[in-house]
UniProtKB/TrEMBL annotation:
Keywords, alphabetical: DNA-binding
DNA-binding region in chain numbering: 2-21
Pfam hit, one: TetR_C_20
Underlying gene: kstR_2
Record-given protein name: HTH-type transcriptional repressor KstR
Gene3D superfamilies: Tetracycline Repressor, domain 2
Tagged with keyword Lipid biosynthesis: no
């Protein structure tokens, strides 16, 4: 993907594109943030299922479907997110905050508590690490999905055990 092609697709001059996005990484991270916003607006992921695991499974099924629809775009966005330098820090922080909040609201079924945000941050790290492996062709789509799902279930299981232990000890 080249900046010239992006500029042509959106109907602007390359110089104008560079004025708003100093590098391709910035464009890709901004596109990723937009996709997270679209996903957030597409459904109320925090309702409709009785447990946090069921709600998260509904959301992650949608996420899995989306990243597998266009593996080349997923690869480009994942690489951009993983290798962006300090110049793209603000865009990266925005993207991370959007997905973390979406995951946390899904887990909590409403307004997330600090614990929900912490767990959501860990889940987003699990996703990123596994999508980097997928993008580097070190894992198939099926293996990537399995790894994400297993790690997420394990994390939620441990979090639940910890919450129960806090109540009784």
């Amino acid at each position: 993907m080249q900046m010239r092609v992006i500029a042509e697709r959106v109907g602007i001059a390359v110089g104008t594109l560079y004025r708003y996005f100093p590098a391709k990484t910035h464009v890709l991270v901004a596109a990723l943030t937009r996709e997270f916003h679209r996903l957030d607006e597409a459904g109320d992921w925090g309702v409709g299922a009785s447990t946090p695991v069921e709600r998260l499974e509904r959301l992650t099924a949608q996420l899995h479907q989306r990243w597998q629809c266009d593996p080349l775009l997923t690869e480009a966005m994942t690489r951009a997110f993983a290798v962006a330098d300090a110049r793209a820090a603000a865009e990266l922080d925005r993207a991370a905050a959007v997905i973390q909040t979406l995951l946390a609201r899904t887990l909590s079924g409403g307004e997330p508590a600090p614990t929900d945000l912490h767990i959501a941050g860990l889940i987003s790290d699990i996703w990123l690490a596994n999508l980097v492996a997928f993008s580097g062709h070190r894992a198939s789509a099926a293996d990537t999905r399995d790894r994400i799902d297993r790690a997420t279930r394990r994390l939620l299981s441990r979090a639940e055990e910890t919450e129960v232990a806090k109540r009784y000890f």
